[in-house]
Amino acid sequence: MKPLTEEEKLKYQVARELGLLDKLMQVGWAGLSTAESGKIGGMVGARKQKKRKDM
Q: Mean pLDDT in the chain?
């Protein structure tokens, strides 16, 4: 298995913060609902934008 990218690490971190990590590990990304995936994606995007802004 190849190492995770920084973006992948961030996705897993957000999933853990939302209490979705256990579900994610059981069913994979495709097993998450649209709302769950959207919430993760939105938070990842917001954090990436904030990081760019803070630079």
A: 95
